[in-house]
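User: Can you help me understand a structure? I only have the sequence.
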Amino acid sequence: MAGEGPFLWLSKEAPPAGFRDLPPGGMCLSAFVFVRRGPEILLGKYANVPEWERLSGLDEERRRVHGRGWTIPASQMKYGEDPRAAAERVAEEILQIRGMTFSEPRAEVDLYEPKRFPGRMHYDVWFLVDGTPPKGWSLRVPPWYAELAWRDPKTMPATEYARGHEDVVARWRTPRRERAASRR
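Assistant: Let's start by predicting it. Here is the structure, written out as tokens:
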């Protein structure tokens, strides 16, 4: 039917092959910052505090539901925001780390049926960015985190993650060219 895709031209005036409405299960654009220390990455558990809404768009229900598991420092992107600027915002505002250096963002996509919306497919665009803190930096837990810790993603069980972040970590650990080679 006209206006129902498949092309991600999202507009009320989209051509017939674009979307005149959002995809039925929604769509998110997010920046994930992988702060590394050897084989470990920095992961956090949300404190159920309202600052998350300002920092990353995370509402109370999602904070409560996902606060039990580990998450990658991340945020939904703001309208018009470049993925590089989003990564810097995650580092400076969410993690409170100034002077971090970053890789170029790597885009990944995921299309899945969320538990919250059975029968409706959700589309994610992830910008994965590696971050290196400045020399002399030491870990401090901002008040909107219940916990921040270094964890080894190779040994951490998938069940310890929240918000499907185990899928994001798996994608980050396996670069696209390796996944393409394994499918041949």
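Now, to help you interpret it: The first strand starts at residue 27 and ends at 37. The chain has a mean pLDDT of 91. Let me know which part you'd like to focus on.
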